[in-house]
Amino acid sequence: MNGTFKSWVGRHVDLKLLSREIEEFFRKKHFKTIIIKIEKGYSVRTSPPSHATIYGRVDVNVEGKSSDFTVTFLASKHTRSAIRLGFITTFIGGGNLLLRGLKSQEALDRLEKEFWIHLEEVIGRIT
Known about the structure:
The protein is α+β, with helices and mostly antiparallel strands. It has helices at residues 15-28, 78-88, 95-126, and strands at 2-9, 32-38, 41-47, 58-65, 68-75.
């Protein structure tokens, strides 16, 4: 999985509550979700709805302490694999796979952008 992350210091956020807010963000977009307690925090594991153009799951890890934590957005490698395979097989009909992979990447990029904006709002509200 490929990921991007952001860190916050001095915000005093309940990480369990933050994880629930993250879960709700994905549920509103009809993703299947589950929150799992991990060693240093929580992991929100999601699967896109069947009608979505995003391939594979998206996981979000919330790790650290209330006043010093990191949130990591982890996207499955399926989209990147579809693009790569589509490029390789373009000459034998893989163009469709390439197109689906590119659309998946666009949708994933939009989702991630919306996620970070939403997360900033949530952290501001629950601090």
